[in-house]
Specification:
The structure is a single chain. The chain contains nine helices and no strands. By secondary structure, it is mostly helical. α1 packs antiparallel against α2 (32-49). It starts with 9 loop residues before the first helix and ends in a 6-residue tail after the last helix.
Length: 169
Amino acid sequence: MRKGQKQIDVEEALQTYGDMVYRLALVQMKNRSEADDVFQEVFLRLVRYKDRIQGEAHLKPWLLTVTVNCCRKQFDNAFRRRTVPMDREIGREESYEMGLPGDPVYDAVLELADDYRSVIHLFYYEQYSVREIGEILDISESAVKTRLSRARGMLKEKLKGEFASAGTV
């Protein structure tokens, strides 16, 4: 830790950013138990590496980056690749926030590919700028803009019938 730098309080970080981390993990994993695993891993890493974080200003981006990386690690897990999601068997789980099952926008966002779902979530639900999303996901700003544009197009197509009469899409 640097001189004059305030040490990160893990409990305070959990209270302040816990919901955000969990929402992002849930959107990425589409499964509560896997989102719980990611959530725990993120805050275990915070306990382990809190001395390396350069103050409160860097905490939120660090948590988001670690969450995305933990989700990617879960997707690469050999065990996960060999399993069949239970939601195919018993229906979808309820969401944490972001909308409710049966809400056409919520369902359409969850059906997007991971890359598109990530940028949509960070942009619209977490209110990050294109630049910040690029830093969090470790991609260029133009890649973020491209993914946002493509994701919006996909959502527009998926939702065309739902909102055609309202004139909003």
